[in-house]
Design brief:
- With about 325 residues, this protein is α+β, with helices and mostly antiparallel strands.
- It contains nine helices and ten strands.
- Strands 1, 2, 3, 4, 5 and 6 form a six-stranded mixed sheet that branches.
- The longest helix is centred in the middle third of the chain and has 16 residues, at about 115-130.
- The protein is globular, with a radius of gyration of 19 Å.
- The protein starts with 17 loop residues before the first strand and ends in a 5-residue tail after the last helix.
- The structure holds cytidine-5'-monophosphate.
């Protein structure tokens, strides 16, 4: 498939005055996450590897061009300051389009868990509305709007496996990974991202990356190169938030050990937590492990490649995959 077909600007819906679509909103994992230092702008400089997985929310959208904008959202759970509405307003203002937009959001991705659910929902709106309004937005502009909604939002404009630098919004594609079975374990502990960064106690520096010769950067760089050929379970994958977040929520390291005992390799926290994930060799091993956790805490899934991500998007907008 040509690289251009992964561009958000390539999505367009058939021209009708009132359109209804149901789009997917996938979760992400951070397969590795290193926090280098605090920057003068208050954000932290990081290096991470994002991966989309099959755990997903579903967003139904009814869209009609109108004289005045009216945005309605009904959601399966109560979420304050839902990013869906903010994302829709941002996008319609940018397009200078007025429309009636009704969203029905079915949440399956645990919230406040480091799985990117809110960011993914925001990006789903940014991908869908230009297609529904038949007004494509050039990718650099769309990425800028995404970044204004949150550091993780731009990743979901692309999906698959990606390397992220800076705030986490400067993205480069990494090779598609095989469909690895993964078990996500989320206990409902809510971790505030801002608090988790604070707990790291990183110093402010002006440096573009980190003090010269950083062993963190050398190790991260090596594993990004190895990602193409090596099996993930042989790589020294790490999440810099684990130490700080595990010290506050003492049940999390025990859950990570349980995942390892059940055969997960590696078992890590995603983002700033509190969800953990374990990679398994086979779907059967993963399902056996899932059965050892309370059913509301275990979320069986698998990796979703960029190719699959885009096929799902095209299907949902009535285009050939
Ligand atoms: O960008 P987003 O709104 O998702 O970030 C939430 C909070 O997480 C920020 O206000 C900031 O405190 C922290 N953050 C950070 N460095 C990053 C990303 C987020 O310090 N790279």
């Amino acid at each position: 498939m040509a690289a251009a077909s992964y561009s958000p600007a390539s999505l367009l819906c058939p021209s009708t005055s009132r359109v209804q679509v149901i789009v997917p909103s996938f979760a992400k994992l951070n397969l590795d996450l290193r926090v280098l230092h605090k920057r003068p702008d208050g954000y932290h400089e990081l290096r991470t590897i994002f991966q989309t997985i099959s755990l997903k929310d579903t967003l139904a959208i009814e869209f009609e061009l109108k004289k005045r904008t009216q945005i309605e959202l009904s959601c399966s759970i109560q979420i304050d300051d839902n990013l869906v509405v903010r994302s829709a307003k941002t996008l319609l203002d940018h397009l200078k389009v007025t429309a009636s937009v009704r969203f029905v959001l079915d949440k399956k991705i645990p919230i406040g868990a480091g799985l990117g659910g809110g960011s993914s929902n925001a990006a789903a709106v940014l991908l869908a509305l230009p297609a529904l309004a038949r007004k494509p937005v050039p990718p650099p502009e769309l990425v800028r709007l995404a970044e204004s909604l949150g550091s993780d939002v731009p990743f979901f404009l692309y999906g698959g496996t990606a390397l992220a630098l800076g705030r986490g919004s400067e993205l480069y594609p990494l090779p598609d990974q095989p469909r690895r079975p993964v078990l996500v374990v989320s206990t409902g502990i809510h971790v505030s991202t801002a608090e988790a960064y604070k707990a790291l106690g990183r110093n402010v520096t002006n440096a573009l990356t980190s003090p010269a010769g950083s062993p963190i950067l050398r190790e991260f760089q090596t594993l990004a190169w190895d990602l193409d050929g090596s099996s993930l379970n042989r790589l020294p994958l790490r999440n810099d938030f684990e130490e700080a977040v595990f010290a506050i929520h003492k049940e999390l390291p025990a859950l990570a050990r349980k995942l390892r005992r059940l055969g997960a390799k590696p078992a890590l926290m995603t983002g700033s937590g509190s969800a953990l994930f374990g990679l398994f060799q086979t779907p059967a091993e993963m399902r056996t492990a899932a059965s050892k956790f309370p059913s509301g805490n275990a979320f069986p899934a698998r990796f979703v490649s960029r190719r699959e991500y885009w096929a799902a998007w095209r299907r949902s907008l009535g285009q050939p995959a």
